[in-house]
């Protein structure tokens, strides 16, 4: 079984991000970039499936500019066998990524795609769902446990009310939640080997997919700073302030 | 000339940093409070780093190490430097390059177990009357007439001596030959007449023991002699330079980086007179000076390491790095205390202990004065070759 893991290059989780001065987006110049933490969990799960003899090959894929190769090398150092960069300088939105990964999944004959449940930059949480829909495969999002057996996959999902276990026929799309596993450190030998592992590049423009943006960002700004509260002496004063000052009544 | 790190180097640095922050820094408070790293925690740390191929990364692959170049070693050593000395020793190993001088039989007994982390090693050169002047040691190895020696004398300040299983000991085998009469011996703990003395308490470096050693006619055979009779001082000069660059210079850069990170975050967070203290120019000066000095420090370290990788004698550059980087650490630590004010002086935060730890960097592995002397003498001998581009 071949497992495909899409990985995204995002601003590192330790970074305090701030909007660009013109409000057109988040400032990413001179900002440390890393693999999306949920994608790391997805890579870890795929590598564990390979180590358990369930998966035959783990292929990491990233969509974006050439710098995404760094993210792919990280996936290779964690234990992925191969990597594919779908190269484009166009800013990709979730739907575009889902369409591109669909092409790669079909080309590769992947039986399972494990995504991170969301990327920590835009927190959109929709690529895995869109991908499953486009492929017309089953989907199990927010996975906290994955067991593959006899052409099907049993996934424990973290849902609002507790845990839900579902069984899907393969091929399928799974999205990884925080508690699925604890990603390993890349080992020194694997870091050194990562460079020798194959990393192929596909041009997004040659995959016959419309990646043009569907959503337009109007402006990005920091939320207003929270002002200090006040103490009121009576219910009457509270009501009066809610009416006259806060204007919520 | 490309000063960018390769993708492997970046990954290496980031992985080690993550390991240091997740697995090591959380252990520091307890070490500071109890004065020691609990043995079971030391063991767990070793096992985790070892499983990730992070132990003895500086040793060539053919002996089971990580096979890093000198430059890559410095990059990871800088990251090690964020943590306390004792944690670095247990997590990444102090496997000294001088052990590479082991012959085939010695390798099995000392080098390979050290690389695997089964045995640990201390270097025992310093004596009460032989610090920077390592050639003036008094410890004697007298021939026993059967091809072996009996070692008599004393050492002090031997780092990690309580924990170590064996020691690389310098001793005079020919008192008439000066520096050429010094030899190195591999001496196992437990050899008759070899006594590990008391732990000498230090200002900082909490958790790392620094012991006195006493040798009373300690018998050693030819199998204990490292690198040939009379070769000791030469070996020390040849191999300890790289150790100095890694364990002192690169780690000092890492400590400065950690201190500056703390300084910057505090300067942005701490408000006085209605604004963050980072808005005040006197604080900004401390930040700016630290930034530039840290970058200069790293370049000195990597430049010297690059010479080592290219087989060029790097001793002068290591001396330049040694005193400059150590003094930068001292200044950055001092500024960090100043920016934190009372909180920098308070032992609740790591600044206070890092300030104490920083002081030794200008002293051990050759004082600033010794290394300045080396650089000045070399400059007067070689001129522009030492500081120009022609």
From TrEMBL, chain A:
InterPro entries noted in UniProt: ET-Flavoprotein_bsu_CS, ETF_a/b_N, ETF_b, ETF_beta_N, Rossmann-like_a/b/a_fold
CDD domains: ETF_beta
A UniProt-annotated Pfam family: ETF
Cofactors: AMP
Signal peptide residues on this chain, from the entry's feature table: none
GO molecular function, one term: electron transfer activity
Name listed for the protein in its UniProt record: Electron transfer flavoprotein subunit beta
TrEMBL record, chain B:
Cofactor: FAD
GO cellular component annotations of the record: cytoplasm
Family: Belongs to the acyl-CoA dehydrogenase family.
Domain Acyl-CoA dehydrogenase/oxidase N-terminal: 7-118
Lineage of the organism: Bacteria, Pseudomonadati, Pseudomonadota, Betaproteobacteria, Rhodocyclales
GO molecular function: acyl-CoA dehydrogenase activity; flavin adenine dinucleotide binding
Official protein name in the record: Medium-chain specific acyl-CoA dehydrogenase, mitochondrial
Ranges for domain Acyl-CoA oxidase/dehydrogenase middle: 123-218
């Amino acid at each position: 079984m071949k497992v495909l893991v899409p990985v995204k290059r995002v601003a590192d989780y330790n970074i305090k991000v701030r909007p660009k001065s013109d409000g057109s987006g988040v400032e990413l110049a001179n900002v440390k970039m890393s693999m999306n933490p949920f994608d790391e969990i997805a890579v870890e799960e795929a590598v564990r499936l390979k180590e358990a003899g369930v998966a035959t090959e783990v292929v990491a894929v990233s969509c974006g500019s050439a710098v995404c190769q760094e993210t792919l090398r990280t996936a290779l150092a964690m234990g992925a066998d191969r990597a594919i960069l779908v190269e484009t300088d166009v800013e990709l939105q979730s739907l575009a990524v889902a369409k591109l990964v669909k092409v790669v999944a079909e080309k590769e004959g992947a039986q399972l795609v494990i995504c991170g449940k969301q990327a920590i930059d835009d927190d959109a949480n929709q690529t895995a769902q869109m991908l499953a829909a486009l492929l017309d495969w089953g989907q199990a999002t927010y996975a906290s446990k994955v067991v593959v057996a006899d052409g099907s996959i049993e996934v424990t999902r973290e849902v609002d009310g507790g845990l839900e276990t579902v069984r899907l026929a393969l091929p399928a799309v799974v999205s990884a939640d925080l508690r699925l596993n604890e990603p390993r450190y890349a080992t020194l030998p694997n870091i050194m080997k990562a460079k020798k592992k194959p990393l192929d590049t596909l041009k997004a423009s040659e995959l016959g997919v419309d990646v043009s943006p569907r959503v337009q960002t109007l402006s990005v700004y920091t939320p207003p700073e929270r002002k200090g509260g006040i103490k009121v002496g009576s219910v009457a004063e509270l009501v009066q302030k809610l009416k006259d000052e806060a204007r919520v009544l | 000339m490309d000063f960018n790190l390769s993708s492997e180097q970046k990954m290496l640095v980031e992985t080690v940093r993550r390991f240091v922050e997740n697995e090591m820094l959380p252990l520091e408070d307890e070490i500071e409070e109890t004065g020691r790293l609990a043995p079971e925690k030391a063991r767990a740390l070793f096992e985790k780093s070892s499983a990730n191929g992070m132990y003895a990364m500086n040793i060539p692959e053919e002996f089971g190490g990580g096979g890093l170049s000198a430059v890559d070693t410095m990059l990871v050593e800088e990251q090690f430097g964020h943590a306390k000395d004792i944690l670095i020793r247990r997590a990444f190993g102090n496997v000294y390059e001088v052990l590479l001088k082991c012959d085939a039989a010695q390798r099995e007994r000392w080098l390979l177990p050290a690389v695997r982390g089964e045995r640990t090693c201390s270097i025992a050169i310093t004596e009460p009357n032989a610090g920077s002047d390592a050639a003036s040691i008094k410890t004697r190895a007298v021939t026993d007439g059967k091809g072996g020696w009996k070692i008599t004398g004393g050492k002090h300040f031997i780092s990690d001596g309580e924990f170590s299983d064996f020691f690389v000991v310098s001793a005079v085998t020919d008192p008439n030959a000066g520096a050429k009469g010094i030899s190195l011996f591999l001496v196992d703990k437990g050899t008759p007449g070899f006594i590990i003395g008391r732990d000498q308490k230090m200002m900082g470096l909490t958790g790392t023991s620094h012991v006195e050693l006493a040798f009373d006619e300690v018998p050693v055979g030819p199998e204990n002699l490292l690198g040939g009779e009379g070769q000791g001082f030469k070996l020390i000069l040849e191999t300890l330079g790289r150790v100095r660059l890694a364990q002192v210079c690169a780690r000092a850069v890492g400590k400065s980086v950690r201190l500056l990170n703390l300084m910057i975050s505090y300067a942005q967070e701490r408000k006085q007179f209605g604004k963050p203290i980072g808005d005040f120019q006197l604080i900004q000066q401390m930040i700016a000076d630290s930034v530039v000095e840290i970058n200069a420090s790293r370049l000195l370290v990597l430049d010297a390491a690059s010479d080592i990788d290219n087989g060029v004698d790097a001793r002068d550059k290591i001396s330049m790095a040694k005193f400059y980087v150590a003094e930068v650490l001292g200044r950055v630590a001092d500024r960090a205390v100043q920016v934190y004010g009372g909180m920098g002086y308070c032992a609740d935060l790591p600044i206070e202990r890092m300030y104490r730890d920083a002081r030794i960097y200008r002293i051990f592995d050759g004082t600033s004065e010794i290394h300045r002397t080396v650089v000045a003498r070399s400059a007067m001998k070689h001129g522009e070759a030492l500081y120009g581009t022609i």
